[in-house]
Amino acid sequence: MGTGGLVVFRSVRGDQKSVYAGVYACIYFHCDGYWTSLGVRLGEFLESCVLVNGLGPSNPAGRVCNGFGCLVAQFIAEFKGGPGHLYLFPTERALDMEFVYVVECQEAPPAGPVLSVKTWSSGKPEDEHGAKFMSPSDFRAFCERGGDDEDAAGEESSAPKETRGEPETVKTVDTCEAQAEQG
Length: 183
Description:
Elements: E1 5-12, E2 23-29, H1 35-48, E3 49-52, E4 63-65, H2 68-79, E5 86-89, E6 99-106, E7 114-120, H3 136-144, E8 168-169, E9 172-173, H4 175-182
Parallel strand pairs: 1-6, 3-4, 3-9
Antiparallel strand pairs: 1-2, 2-5, 6-7, 7-8
């Protein structure tokens, strides 16, 4: 049996507090769900994304995502390589899996959207409340270390206990504004 992983993409506006508010997708990975596999790949994917608000003739270099929904669709296209392994689950599914990853896009005008990720690995949905959000780069580094945080008792923790940095403002480009500046 494989080590399952659950990746949840959700958009948050204002002070939405519901676990399921703005959920775009709940994606189940049948195996290799641990931090040093799925976690690292998710972190690398998120770091490569450039969110834009509209497409135009002069899009930035890199993986261009026309909004958060486009980012989610590109994630699925990148990670789904054939039958099996990756499955879409109902968005109201309980967050109970060996490894859980929640990617949030906080709408934060005027600076643009802010992506952050939190993770835990006990299979209990209530562990989300103890997990802290990390920037995509801090999240990737955490996963590359294999989730090496330790609790006060010296035992390995199942979730990051402190934020390793503030969430990053995602690289964004409003192509309508960029075109107006050029024209």
